[in-house]
């Protein structure tokens, strides 16, 4: 389950009036600024993602994914949509569709090579452990990379054409395909905002045809040539969340009102859906009331498609939006409740934590790529221990410290300090 992410404070009109205004007046480019809540919540997601990817990690029993339909993937994708509205939305408005799309294409190129580099780095690490380590565990097979090493040539072609996408290496391919859909959505904006919404929803429905009664198998991409397995993260489903975040930050969607009714509805959905979306909570219900658990159990099979992670089922979308709304309310206008005030020890500690978390959120791509490799190394280190509570805590906290260092290092390199200052 992803931590809640707020909607930006942008005063916008409704879809119909916004579309009408486009014909009457030039499009105004939103101010190019980062919502502080964007980086804070995305930073939280990076820590959760590292925790979730450490093999055999005790702490994964307490990440938000164990308590509801949605998880940290939602915040990564939603925040990426928001950040893309800042990074690319202005380019489309200032330079037009062609130059805006060229910039998106350059980002796709960067993400593609990040994916390739990450794969070869981790594959090399696992191969080195198996070749020179003499360990009982086969680390190559732990990531199901046996086919790549046994039959490298066709898998190498598949890797570069994205027809071979092993599990664990699937979120960046999803992200770059979703980015690749941005020129289409920006072209639809020239027609109307309704056309944008209709296009995104239509693509999502193609990946989730059960919603309109057309069966379980929808639009997807093949993940490996020797089986029928599809991409675990179907970009045609997940783009709906990406462009929802994009729409809020771009000003296509208005911020929701803060009302007791919406707050209560969001809390009720998050709380009462937990036994239907998380086995951990369901087990607690079993212990507390077996009859209630027996009533809930059949619902799991009935809602399997609606909470499906691969195609981004509708229940995941509603769950995340509920959390996002609550997070936005809690953070306050402009994230003012996140900012520490006063000079107490607690305020000073929170100010430091806020700075560290925000920095990680600002450098999310670099942190994500590093954390995926780091998680395997931490998992290997834990394999050499008895995985006690203490060693697990040390491993996780050390990992958090390392991704913070990477975030600051990435920011330092991006600032190009070697260039002469004017």
From TrEMBL:
Keyword S-adenosyl-L-methionine: no
Organism in which the protein naturally occurs: Parasedimentitalea huanghaiensis
Protein name per Swiss-Prot or TrEMBL: OpgC domain-containing protein
Membrane recorded as keyword: yes
Transmembrane segments: 38-55, 75-92, 112-135, 155-179, 191-211, 231-249, 261-282, 312-331, 365-382, 394-413
Domain of life, per lineage: Bacteria
Pfam families according to UniProt: OpgC_C
InterPro entries (UniProt xref): UCP028704_OpgC
Keywords per UniProt: Membrane, Transmembrane, Transmembrane helix
Lineage of origin: Bacteria, Pseudomonadati, Pseudomonadota, Alphaproteobacteria, Rhodobacterales
